[in-house]
Structures are given as structure tokens and as C-alpha cells.
């Protein structure tokens, strides 16, 4: 019996020892197989990087692999960061059971994070940042109970942050920034009492920050910017989180005041809560933070335009000896800029105070800030001259003083400021000559000194700056010629010297500006021909109008591949107009006011070119006849010289008066401000053209007057026009008239209604009369099509889907031109269906610029008075929320209106629909349709899925454009690209796409509202 027991014991011992000794070998093989499986599913951009991962090389010698354990045979660390791997992460990674550190950052892994990662219960460090991972964060990660660092930033991970992460009690670093995360901030994260760094920035999270965050008392880094978080910051914020060093909460929807208790966080170095909705004053207690080096509070509603207290915080910040960055721009700060600004720390590199209502002068000791690199004080009310100490700012890279009331001469010390990259001194009252010393700024990129009172010649020195990309000298009183040195600017992208007194020939050397895209020389006295600029293949916008240029229009202009807008009007060109390239489209080229031009495309309405017959031989003139002929020619020449001189004197006098007087003067000769195929018309001519302004010719009524159909010309030259007669008794009508004249000056686009001419005269009763004459749009306005209320034969059907998409793209193209491609950005400010007109081919043209604003000349009071006078009813639903709260006009306001217009076109619902109330509006309706029916409707395998997909994409553009906050809206060019992509992907051409519609498409075509309702019903 004893022998049997002993034998059993020996047998068991042998089995145990076999298991013990066999297990390491088996486990290392498991690790090897797991890694080889990972390699097989990971595509290598560099095929050599994992070449050591093979059966002939010991596992622990593989690149990126570190082994550990008792026998040093288990994989404890895998570091493949930056190896340029792609493919998917194999689930076999969960078999690396001894793994403590896993780094897959900076690769291109796609698909999802395998849930098997949750099997790595020894894992302490997990970094999968900077990949292309999608899907959800696996809930199984909560099983990695020893995890200290979790970094999944810069991927495409979506859905909510799992509340299970709150069980990772040893977590010290949690980076989930730059993903597509949604939902609220999990309150369970308050359990992570060891957490020191949290980053949720650049996601789509919403809601208030839970009170549980106050338990994270060890936290030193807290960043949640670029989300949709809201609510007020707790008053005891600084007492609850006493160890914070970095707080970044910008670009959210926080309200209320900045907590005074922030002063209790003595370690706080960076605080940024820019672009929110904060109110109240800026706490003086910021001055008690000895380590503060970054303070960002821009784009809120801080301050009360109070001349006594708003800027006291600047004085307090003089105690912050580490301060490097201060941004309080675009708030409601008023009062004089304190002299104590010059007492801020000498470590200060960036000072942003623009977009407020700050008055006074620039402190004379501003030169004390010797390390200042960026000084941004634009759009304030500063006066006086630039102080002498400015010349001490030798590190300055950007100086932006745009749109103030600064005066005096420009200083001569710029040559010492060799680090300058941008000089924005435009829209002030500087006078005198342009200093040659600016030529010493050899790193200069932007030089904007337009819209001042500068005189004298253009110094050649500034045209020798090799880095110069944008040069704007427009709207001054500069004389002389454009120096030939301009040809040395090979990197120049934009050149504007318009509306000066320049003369002479445009230099041939201009052809050396090989990067030039924008050339504006209009409103001068240049003469001679157009120089050879045929090598400037990047040119997109050229305006040489209102000069004395002569000769033939160069044929090479038609061959410039990117040229979109060309204005040669009001010159002395002669000969035939090309018909190819940019000249094919009359809306992109303006040549009016050149009486000796002929030919061109039919829409230009120029006289035909005649071929001269060979002259017959004539008898020689007698001596008597020669003398008589010579005298006649001499007298005619003398008379011509007198006429030309008189005209030049008259134009000069008028132009100087225009410079001197406000642009809204009623004495302005409007016909020179707009494109005109007709001379300025009289009241009598318009009265006859419209049948005495007959009600039978009334085609519409706007905010400031009525629109009549009229016929200009006689016999075969008749042209249908639309005549907008201003009701001058209406408040704002005169400003509306001026706005349209100013807006149309120098702009031409195929999707803008063409303003032909104007009339400023007296009617038959002796009353003041003003009218605008537009090209007639025979298909009426878009709103009559959307309402589906036939008025004419051409309204007997609804717009097809492709036609609607084309209209949307046309409108988007017009807005993109106004926002991006005009010399100065223009905001329409009143986009709605009734202001979109259709021609015979259903091409859309945006009109009614009565509220439009050239943004660089924004007059807040004028804008608000016009907007209110337009009648809120007329624009309710289309106007962005910020306009109703007194916000400034902006291109983002137009984007909002475009988004609403797009949603109306493709849902069949107006923004003023009775079903909308409170926070439920057209935007939220479209959002709900996308959320409830987007995936389900767009799925399936039927042909209908194609229709669903295009509609989903279009609605997404509409929703993104009509976001409540400006910062969340798309840019116009981005929206336009999206719509063009939809058209090219789902509809083959503009004309025949309608024939490809399925029955489901036909439903959308005939009644989009019914289709949307059926989609809602289906998803329910």
C-alpha cells in the first residue's frame, strides 16, 4: 500500500513538473503565433520593417518586441509606434497575456479596436493614437484593471465614452481627443481619483460637466475644447481642482461668469476658455496667478463697454511675470487702452485685443514688450500716431492695426524690424509717403496699407521684398508709375493698387510675377497697352477698368486656364473681342465703355466687326486741297484735345470729391459704379419701358420697393429688363440703393443677377426718383417654384431633383464668389428663395443686394437699421440667430441662410412652417430625419438606396450649414464641393439626370414633404 501511494505521488509530481516545464515553451509559442497573425493582417508600407518577424529569428529579437518574465521568454512590451503599418489589428493580440505595454501609435490601422484587448489584464500602457480606427471604444477595456495610460486620440472612433472606463482606478492619463465621440461626459469618470491628465478635445460631446469631476483632485491637465459642452462653470471651480496647471475649454457653449476661485489654483499656467458665451467682467484675480503664461478668453461677451472697469484686468496682469500669451479679442471691452499695457511681462510674445471698442492711443512705452511677436489691435477705436518706441519691437512678426482711426505718417524704423511677416495698417487715416524702410522687412508676407490717405510714389524698395505674397495699396492718393521692380515679386499672389492716381504704362516686368492670382489696378490713369502677362497661368481675377488703356485686347488672355473674372471696362480698347476661354461667358468679362470694340459673344451686345475692303487708288490731292485738309485735321485735333482735357479735369474733380465725401452722398454718379450695357437712363425712358409702371407689369415687391417688367430699346434691339423702383419714403431705401450700387461695383459672376444700369432722377411730379435696372429672369423666383403655385406656363410642373441640385450649386457658387473671390469679402445678408431668380435654362441668379455688406467697410449701425427696416417678417427663418441679437454681418451668416434654403428645397418644408415652435425648427427637423431614417433608408440593396444616399448627403450639408453657432458651420466652398460631388456621383449630367429617376425619385421630385413624412413613418 505504501508502495502504491509512493508511486502515485511520484506520478503526480512528474505530471506537475511536465506541465511547469512545458508551459513556458508553449506560452512563448502562443506569443509568436499571435504576433505572426498580427503581422499577416497588418499591411506594411515599408516591407522591411517587420522582416525580422519570422520563425528563424528568436522571438525576443524581433523588432519592437521586448521580453520579460522569469525565463525572459514572454512578450511584455510591443512597440510598433511610427512603423507606417496599415490593415487591421488582429484579435490574436489578446493572446499576449503577459503584455504590459502596447504602442501602435502613428500608423494607419483601420477598422475597430478588437475587444480581445480587454483580455490583457496585465496591461499598464495602451497607445493607439494617430491611426484610422473607427467604431466604439470596447467596454472590455474595463477588464484591464492595472491600466495607467489610455491614449486613443486622433482616430475616427465614434459613439459615447463607455461608463465602464470609470472602473479603471489606476488610470492617470486618459486621451480620447480628436475623434468623433458623442454623448455626455460620463459621471463615472469621477471615480478615477488618480487621474492627472484628461483630454476630450475635438469631439462632438454635449451636455454639462458633471459634478463628479470635482473628485479628480489630482488632475493637472484638463482639456475639453472643440465640443458642444454647455452650462455654467461652478463658482467653486478653483477650490475643487486645486492642482490644475492647464485648463482648455474653448469652443463650447459655456455661459455665465468666469469663476473668481480660479485665483486659488496657484499652479495654473494655461487657462483658455475662448469662443464660448461667457459674460461679466474679467477677474482681476488673474493677476494673483504667479505661473500664468497663457490666458485665452477671446470671442465671448465679456465686458460691458465700460470705460472705467473693463480693461482693469490688464493692469492686474502686470503681476504675472511669466505671461507669454494674452488673447481677449472680440469681446465687449470698452474704455481707453491703459498705459499699463506696456508694463506687462517682457516675456509676452502674443497680445490680441482686436474686435472690441477700445479707444485712446497706443501706449508710448509699448516698446518695453521687447519679446512681442504678435500685436493685434484691429477693429477698435484707437487714435493718434504710432509711438516711437514701436521701433524697439525687433521680434515683432505680425502687426495688425486694421480698422482703427490711427493717423500721422508711417514711421521710418521698419527696416530694423526684420522679423515682420504681416503688416496690416489698412482702413486708418495714415498720411504722407510710404516709407522706403519697409523694404528692409525681408521676411514680409502681407503688406496691407490700403484705405488710408497716403500719397507720393510707390517706393521701388517695397517691390524688392522676395517673400511678399500680398500687397494692397488701394484707395490712397498714390501718384507716379507702378515701378518696374514689381516683376521681382515671384511669390506675389495678390496685387492691388486700385483707386489711386497712378499713371504711365503698366510695366512689362509684371509678367515676372509668376505666382500672381489677383491683379487689381482699376481706377487709375494707366495708359498704353496691356503688358505681356501670358506666363501668369495662375491668374483668376484681373481688373484693369477705369483707366486709359488702349490698343487691342491681347488674345493670350483667352488662354489663361484659371482666369474667372476679367474687367476691362471704361478704357479705350479697340478691335475685336475674343470669343474663347474666359470670353465665352459674358458674365465673367466686362468690356463696356470701350466704344471701339466689336465682336465677342452675342451676350456682350457689341457691334459686329466689319472687314475693310481694299482701298481704291485715288488721285493725288492738289496743293490747295492738301492745305485745306491739313487745316481741317489740325482744328479737329485741337478740338479733340480740348474735349479730352475737359473730360479728364471733370473725372479728376469728381473722383477727388468721391475720395473726400462719404460714399453715401446722393451726388454720386451711380452709373460709373455699375456695369452698364446702357447709358444711365432717365425717368421718362423707364416710364415708357414699363408702360407707365403699369400694374400689369408688376412682377414682385421687395423690402424697399416694387419690381416691374420693362422693355428697353426699339425694334430688333428690344431687351427685357426688370426695373426695381425704390420707395424712398421707406426708411433704409436710400441706403439699400447705395448698398446695391457699391456691391455691384467691380463684381461679375454668372450666378449673380446682372445690374445693367441705374436711374437717379426726378419723376414727373418733381420728386426724387431712383431705380435699378436688372437683366430680366423669365422663370421667376425660386420661392414660386417651391410653393408649387403656378403663375405662368413655366410653373406648370415642379423642379426635378437634378434641377434643384443645380439651383443649389448655382446659389452656392454665387456665395462662394462673394465670400472668397471678390477683392473684399461681401456678405449678402438676406438670402432667401425670393431673392434667387431663374433664367430660361433654370440657371439660378442671386439678387437683391439691398442689405449686402462689403465686410471691410462694415457699418454696424447702418446694417442694423437696414435689417430692421427690411421687416423681420421678410427674413424670419432665413436670418441667422446672431443677426437677431445684434451680431455683425458675416459670410457665416450667409452660410446659415444657404443651409436653410437647401433644407427647404429638399424637405418641402418652409422654415416658418406652423409645425415648428420653440427649439424645434427646420434644422432640428432635418437632423431628426437623418438620425431616425438616414442609415435605415440609405441601407438595403435596392435601387432606392442610391436615392436615399444622395438625399442624406444633401441634408447633411444643409444641417451643417445651418448650425446655431457660427463656428460650427461649414465654409461655403466646402459646402459647394460637397454638393458638386453629390451631383457628379449620383446624376450623370445636368440635363439627362432627370430621366434616370426611379419611382421613389419621382415622389421626391413631386412632393419632397410627402416623401420625408413617409420616411418618418417607415422608421417608426
From TrEMBL:
The keyword Protein biosynthesis appears for this protein: no
Enzyme Commission identifier(s): 2.7.11.1
Catalytic activity: L-threonyl-[protein] + ATP = O-phospho-L-threonyl-[protein] + ADP + H(+); L-seryl-[protein] + ATP = O-phospho-L-seryl-[protein] + ADP + H(+)
TM region positions: 627-651
A Pfam family: LRRNT_2
InterPro entries: At_inactive_RLKs, Kinase-like_dom_sf, Leu-rich_rpt, Leu-rich_rpt_typical-subtyp, LRR_dom_sf, LRR_N_plant-typ, LRR_R13L4/SHOC2-like, Prot_kinase_dom
Location(s), subcellular: Cell membrane
UniProt keywords, alphabetically: ATP-binding, Cell membrane, Glycoprotein, Kinase, Leucine-rich repeat, Membrane, Nucleotide-binding, Phosphoprotein, Receptor, Repeat, Serine/threonine-protein kinase, Signal, Transferase, Transmembrane, Transmembrane helix
Annotated Gene Ontology cellular component terms: plasma membrane
Topological relation to the membrane, as annotated: Single-pass type I membrane protein
Name of the protein in its database record: non-specific serine/threonine protein kinase
Species per Swiss-Prot/TrEMBL record: Raphanus sativus
Amino acid at each position: 500500500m505504501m508502495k502504491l501511494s509512493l508511486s502515485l505521488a511520484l506520478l503526480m509530481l512528474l505530471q506537475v513538473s511536465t506541465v511547469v516545464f512545458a508551459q513556458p515553451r508553449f506560452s512563448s509559442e502562443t506569443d509568436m503565433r499571435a504576433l505572426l497573425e498580427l503581422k499577416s493582417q497588418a499591411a506594411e508600407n515599408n516591407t522591411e520593417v517587420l522582416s525580422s518577424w519570422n520563425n528563424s529569428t528568436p522571438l525576443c529579437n524581433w523588432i519592437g518586441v521586448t521580453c520579460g518574465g522569469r525565463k525572459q521568454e514572454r512578450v511584455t512590451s510591443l512597440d510598433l509606434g511610427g512603423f507606417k503599418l496599415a490593415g487591421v489589428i488582429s484579435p490574436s493580440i489578446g493572446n499576449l497575456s503577459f503584455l504590459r505595454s502596447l504602442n501602435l501609435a502613428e500608423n494607419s490601422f483601420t477598422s475597430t479596436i478588437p475587444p480581445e484587448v480587454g483580455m490583457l489584464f496585465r496591461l499598464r500602457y495602451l497607445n493607439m493614437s494617430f491611426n484610422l480606427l473607427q467604431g466604439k471604444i470596447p467596454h472590455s477595456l474595463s477588464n484591464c484593471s492595472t491600466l495607467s495610460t489610455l491614449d486613443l486620440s486622433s482616430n475616427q472612433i465614434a459613439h459615447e465614452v463607455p461608463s465602464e472606463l470609470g472602473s479603471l482606478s489606476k488610470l492617470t492619463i486618459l486621451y480620447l481627443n480628436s475623434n468623433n465621440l458623442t454623448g455626455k461626459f460620463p459621471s463615472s469618470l469621477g471615480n478615477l481619483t488618480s487621474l492627472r491628465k484628461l483630454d476630450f478635445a475635438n469631439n462632438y460631446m454635449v451636455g454639462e460637466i458633471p459634478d463628479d469631476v470635482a473628485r479628480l483632485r489630482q488632475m493637472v491637465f484638463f482639456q475639453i475644447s472643440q465640443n458642444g459642452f454647455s452650462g455654467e462653470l461652478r463658482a467653486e471651480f478653483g477650490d475643487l481642482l486645486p492642482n490644475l496647471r492647464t485648463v482648455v475649454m474653448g469652443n463650447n457653449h459655456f455661459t455665465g461668469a468666469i469663476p473668481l476661485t480660479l485665483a486659488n489654483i496657484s499652479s495654473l499656467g494655461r487657462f483658455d476658455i475662448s469662443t464660448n458665451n461667457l459674460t461679466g467682467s474679467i477677474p482681476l484675480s488673474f493677476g494673483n496667478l504667479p505661473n500664468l503664461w497663457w490666458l485665452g478668453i477671446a470671442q465671448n461677451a465679456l465686458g460691458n463697454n465700460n470705460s472705467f472697469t473693463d480693461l482693469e484686468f490688464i493692469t492686474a496682469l502686470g503681476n504675472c511675470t511669466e505671461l507669454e500669451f494674452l488673447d481677449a479679442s472680440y469681446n465687449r471691452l470698452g474704455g481707453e487702452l491703459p498705459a499699463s499695457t506696456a508694463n506687462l511681462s517682457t516675456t509676452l510674445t502674443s497680445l490680441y485685443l482686436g474686435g472690441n471698442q477700445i479707444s485712446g492711443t497706443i501706449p508710448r512705452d509699448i516698446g518695453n514688450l521687447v519679446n512681442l511677436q504678435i500685436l493685434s489691435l484691429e477693429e477698435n477705436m484707437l487714435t493718434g500716431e504710432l509711438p516711437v518706441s514701436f521701433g524697439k519691437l525687433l521680434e515683432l512678426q505680425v502687426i495688425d492695426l486694421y480698422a482703427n482711426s490711427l493717423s500721422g505718417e508711417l514711421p521710418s524704423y521698419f527696416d530694423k524690424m526684420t522679423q515682420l511677416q504681416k503688416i496690416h495698417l489698412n482702413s486708418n487715416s495714415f498720411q504722407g509717403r510710404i516709407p522706403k524702410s519697409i523694404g528692409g522687412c525681408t521676411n514680409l508676407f502681407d503688406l496691407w496699407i490700403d484705405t488710408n490717405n497716403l500719397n507720393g510714389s510707390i517706393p521701388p524698395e517695397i517691390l524688392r521684398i522676395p517673400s511678399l505674397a500680398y500687397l494692397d495699396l488701394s484707395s490712397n492718393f498714390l501718384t507716379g508709375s507702378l515701378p518696374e521692380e514689381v516683376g521681382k515679386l515671384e511669390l506675389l499672389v495678390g496685387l492691388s493698387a486700385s483707386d489711386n492716381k497712378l499713371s504711365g504704362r503698366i510695366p512689362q516686368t509684371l509678367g515676372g510675377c509668376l505666382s500672381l492670382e489677383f491683379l487689381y489696378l482699376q481706377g487709375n490713369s494707366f495708359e498704353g497697352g496691356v503688358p505681356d502677362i501670358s506666363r501668369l497661368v495662375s491668374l483668376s481675377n484681373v481688373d484693369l477698368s477705369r483707366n486709359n488703356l488702349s490698343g487691342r485686347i491681347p488674345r493670350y488672355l483667352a488662354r489663361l486656364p484659371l482666369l474667372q473674372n476679367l474687367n476691362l471696362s471704361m478704357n479705350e480698347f479697340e478691335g475685336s473681342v475674343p470669343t474663347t476661354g474666359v470670353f465665352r461667358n459674358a458674365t465673367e468679362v466686362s468690356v463696356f465703355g470701350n466704344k471701339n470694340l466689336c465682336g465677342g459673344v452675342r451676350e456682350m451686345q457689341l457691334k459686329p466687326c466689319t472687314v475693310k475692303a481694299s482701298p481704291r487708288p485715288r488721285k493725288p490731292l492738289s496743293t490747295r486741297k492738301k492745305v485745306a485738309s491739313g487745316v481741317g485735321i489740325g482744328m479737329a485735333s485741337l478740338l479733340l484735345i480740348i474735349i479730352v482735357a475737359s473730360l479728364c479735369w471733370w473725372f479728376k474733380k469728381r473722383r477727388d470729391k468721391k475720395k473726400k465725401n462719404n460714399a453715401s452722398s446722393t451726388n454720386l454718379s451711380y452709373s460709373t459704379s455699375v456695369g452698364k450695357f446702357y447709358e444711365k437712363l432717365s425717368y421718362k425712358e423707364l416710364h415708357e419701358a414699363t408702360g407707365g409702371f403699369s400694374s400689369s407689369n408688376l412682377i414682385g415687391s421687395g423690402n424697399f420697393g416694387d419690381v416691374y417688367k420693362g422693355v428697353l430699346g426699339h425694334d430688333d434691339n428690344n431687351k427685357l429688363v426688370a426695373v426695381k423702383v425704390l420707395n424712398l419714403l421707406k426708411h433704409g431705401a436710400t441706403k439699400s440703393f447705395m448698398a446695391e450700387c457699391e456691391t455691384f461695383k467691380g463684381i461679375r459672376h454668372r450666378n449673380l443677377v446682372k445690374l445693367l444700369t441705374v436711374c437717379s432722377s426726378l419723376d414727373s411730379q418733381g420728386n426724387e426718383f431712383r431705380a435699378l435696372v436688372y437683366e430680366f429672369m423669365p422663370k421667376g423666383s425660386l420661392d414660386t417654384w417651391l410653393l408649387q403655385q403656378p403663375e405662368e406656363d413655366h410653373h406648370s410642373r415642379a423642379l426635378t431633383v437634378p434641377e434643384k441640385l443645380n439651383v443649389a450649386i448655382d446659389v452656392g457658387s454665387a456665395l462662394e464668389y462673394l465670400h472668397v473671390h471678390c477683392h473684399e469679402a461681401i456678405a449678402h445678408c438676406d438670402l432667401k428663395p425670393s431673392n434667387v431668380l431663374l433664367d430660361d435654362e433654370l440657371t439660378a441668379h442671386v439678387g437683391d443686394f439691398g442689405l449686402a455688406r462689403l465686410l471691410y467697410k462694415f457699418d454696424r449701425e447702418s446694417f442694423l437699421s437696414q435689417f430692421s427696416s427690411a421687416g423681420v417678417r421678410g427674413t424670419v427663418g432665413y436670418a441667422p440667430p446672431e443677426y437677431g441679437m445684434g451680431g455683425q454681418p458675416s459670410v457665416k451668416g450667409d452660410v446659415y441662410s444657404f443651409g436653410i434654403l437647401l433644407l427647404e428645397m429638399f424637405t418641402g418644408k418652409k422654415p416658418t412652417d406652423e409645425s415648428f415652435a420653440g427649439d424645434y425648427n427646420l434644422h432640428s427637423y432635418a437632423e431628426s430625419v437623418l438620425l431616425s431614417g438616414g442609415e435605415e433608408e440609405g441601407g438595403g440593396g435596392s435601387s432606392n438606396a442610391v436615392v436615399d444616399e444622395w438625399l442624406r448627403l444633401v441634408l447633411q450639408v444643409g444641417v451643417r450649414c445651418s448650425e446655431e453657432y457660427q463656428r460650427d458651420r461649414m465654409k461655403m466652398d466646402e459646402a459647394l464641393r460637397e454638393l458638386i460631388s453629390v451631383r457628379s456621383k449620383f446624376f450623370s449630367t445636368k440635363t439627362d439626370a432627370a430621366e434616370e429617376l426611379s419611382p421613389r425619385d419621382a415622389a421626391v421630385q413631386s412632393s419632397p414633404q410627402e416623401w420625408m413624412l413617409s420616411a418618418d413613418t417607415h422608421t417608426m
